[in-house]
């Protein structure tokens, strides 16, 4: 089986994919949309992409693409503790505080703001497609005074020196990754929870639309672990609601709630009904 992931090698997504699929062929993609399209077009059987981070919230690129442009199911979720490392070329290890450019994925840059503010308030921050891409770029340009924020595995893979360890703003930083391409994915990992993720769109100009949508879950005592609004990309003020449901009630009860939403004139898109797996940080 071929499993796509947001690459290159040694990115956080690669670490998650390698832990979940240790015996499968892993295929890197340069961006989240490219990885999802790889699943759509049959280049890979499954895809692993980030969906949410403790500090920065949802990965909007993933959410919006899955809502607007595809019907690929979510078959599983991996939760990975995230530890950000500040790394430079080994030739710059002694004068690393002279760094003028810091490269990383936008989420990693946002997760490390306190460290950057303390040591590099004037450095230029540059977004890259992934953390591993940033590490690879820094390794390829040792003559420049720049650094990458990436996982420890990236430093090992691209032979960089870690000069700032665990620089993320929050110690309990985690990222959720979705496995795309099958409705039910079995992993060699312990199951922590079972969830369903849906997107709900209510009729325009309905008074109390969100309250009415949530009430179908409330009176049935269905536990929701996440509620978020995202623009419909039609006109200003129109949104869909992204909702995570903890599967603790019988499935027919949840189905009745979704049917009630539809009877109120809402539309419901089910991203998936999946198991949640927690793995150790790498």
From TrEMBL:
Pathway: Amino-acid biosynthesis; L-phenylalanine biosynthesis; phenylpyruvate from prephenate: step 1/1. Its EC number is 4.2.1.51. It comes from the Bacteria. It is an enzyme of class 4 (lyase). Residues 2-182 form the Prephenate dehydratase domain. It catalyses: prephenate + H(+) = 3-phenylpyruvate + CO2 + H2O. Coiled coil: none annotated. InterPro entries: ACT-like_dom_sf, ACT_dom, Chor_mutase/pphenate_deHydtase, Preph_deHydtase, Preph_deHydtase_CS. This is Prephenate dehydratase. It comes from Candidatus Enterococcus dunnyi.
């Amino acid at each position: 089986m071929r499993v796509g992931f947001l690459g290159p090698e040694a990115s956080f997504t690669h670490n998650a994919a390698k832990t979940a699929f240790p015996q499968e062929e892993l295929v890197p993609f340069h961006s989240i949309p490219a990885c999802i399209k790889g699943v759509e077009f049959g280049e890979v059987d499954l895809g692993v992409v980030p969906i949410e981070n403790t500090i920065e919230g949802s990965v909007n690129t993933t959410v919006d693409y899955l809502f607007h442009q595809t019907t690929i199911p979510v078959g599983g979720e991996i939760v990975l503790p995230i530890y950000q490392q500040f790394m430079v070329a080994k030739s710059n290890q002694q004068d690393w505080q002279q760094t003028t450019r810091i490269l990383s994925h936008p989420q990693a840059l946002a997760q490390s703001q306190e460290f950057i503010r303390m040591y590099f308030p004037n450095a230029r921050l540059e977004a890259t497609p992934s953390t591993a891409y940033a590490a690879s770029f820094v390794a390829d340009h040792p003559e420049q005074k720049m650094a990458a924020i990436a996982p420890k595995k990236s430093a090992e893979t691209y032979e960089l020196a870690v000069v700032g360890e665990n620089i993320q703003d929050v110690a309990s930083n985690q990222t959720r990754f979705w496995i795309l391409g099958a409705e039910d994915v079995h992993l060699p990992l312990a199951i922590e929870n079972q969830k369903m993720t849906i997107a709900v769109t209510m009729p325009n100009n309905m008074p109390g639309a969100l309250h009415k949508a949530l009430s179908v879950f409330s009176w049935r005592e269905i536990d929701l672990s996440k509620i978020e609004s995202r623009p419909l990309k039609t006109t200003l003020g129109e949104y869909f609601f992204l909702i995570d449901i903890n599967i603790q009630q019988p499935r027919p009860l949840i189905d009745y709630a979704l049917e009630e939403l539809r009877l109120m004139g809402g539309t419901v898109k089910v991203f998936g009904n999946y198991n949640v797996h927690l793995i150790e940080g790498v």
